[in-house]
Amino acid sequence: MRLATLCFGSHLMCIYRSSFDLSHHTTRNHWISISSQDIIPAVRDIDAIENTEQVKDVKDADTPVQSPRDAEPIKAEKENTDADDTVKVEEVKTEAPEEKTEEPEVDEATKYPKANWMGDLPEGLHEVPLTLLSLPGSHDSLAIKSDMSTHMPFSPYNPDIAKCIDQLPSFPLFDNFRTKLKEMNRDWSATQESTILEQLQLGIRYFDLRVAKHHGLIFGEHGLFTGEIWKYLGIIKKFLEDHPKEVVLLYFQNLNNLDEKDTQDFIVRLRQTFGQKIIPRTQIEMTTLNTLWQYNQQVMILFKDENLKLLNRTAARQIWPADKLLYNPWPNMQEGHHLIRFIDKHYECSGTDPGMKFHITQAILSPTIEMAFAGKLEYGSLEEMALQGAQPRVIDWMKTKTSMYVVISDFVNQEIVDAVLSFNKA
């Protein structure tokens, strides 16, 4: 994403842009200039809209409000009789409301056949460590389109934008500009359509989590803030209670704006949330399904070393070291054939230490905002890029392989989940 400083002159507006990829922190700076000819029409458009609304308000104010007394009376005719005066009211025919037939509820097993896939695995896979299972995962799991807020500031993931754009004065032109920029950002920052519960029900078991503290609360983030992390973790906890044989990996890739005390408090809250379900740090070979089921352990939490070093010894025993346990190369590719070449190269490395690490295939394309806004991509959004550019190619590529481990993708769906799970054979 790029854009950081606005400078207004009588005939020139300069936008300082800080270039970075939407999925990772790589930046470079340069300037572009937009003449007043580009800005003035936009301002005139806004003024035209405001003037139209003002005219409408005036017209509405001039229109008299009809009182009930002025309304057309109910048609009635009065008959004079010797006995008394009676009023006949024309009979109004009313049709009986149509009976609404409620659609029968579809149970979870029918709608989401992979919601309990770990519990349904063949017995021969109950004694292999988690590292040797094929696990579907979601990339930027909390960047859920419907949850991304355009009302909150930009997240710390966009430090240059957040620092400048959110400090612009509250003025109609700036407010409109801020909102439009966030809406554009959402199209290229949102990585999931499915909610956390839907991801779990689809069969996702590896979650790539990026969080940041804002005004004392911790939110999901990816360019924009999403929901509070504890809401999402509460949903995961409830799902695991309802599915006691399912196991999830929670990889906290980013803990932005959390200092040492914040991180310690975060661990305390994690322990309070999941309790005995947390898988304590031990030999990775011991993490077989049978062992985990025996102790009712369902949650593996992973931190980077930079966050682990902030923990005391007791807390660290329940957190796994992501840097040592995850082989997680980032493709940073914008075209499908380049992506396949990259993941195929790194797939060959997955056999070097089987069972000792989680080998992760990132089935994602990573556009730059420069390419997106300049119209240099054949796709109109990250969702199109994922569903049309990345996933079909990766699914075809997987058909040529005999084994697969963790595969993460944007805009997860049943098709790619099923493709990954097809490798879980005894």
Automatic annotation (TrEMBL):
Domain Phosphatidylinositol-specific phospholipase C X: start-end pairs: 129-304
InterPro entries attached to this UniProt entry: PI-PLC_domain, PLC-like_Pdiesterase_TIM-brl, PLipase_C_PInositol-sp_X_dom
Residue ranges, annotated region (Disordered): 54-108
Gene3D superfamilies reported for this sequence: Phosphatidylinositol (PI) phosphodiesterase (3.20.20.190)
Biased segments, Basic and acidic residues type: 69-99
GO BP: lipid metabolic process
GO molecular function: phosphoric diester hydrolase activity
Any Pfam family the entry gives: PI-PLC_X
Superkingdom of the organism of origin: Eukaryota
Name of this chain's protein: Phosphatidylinositol-specific phospholipase C X domain-containing protein
Species, as recorded: Owenia fusiformis (Polychaete worm)
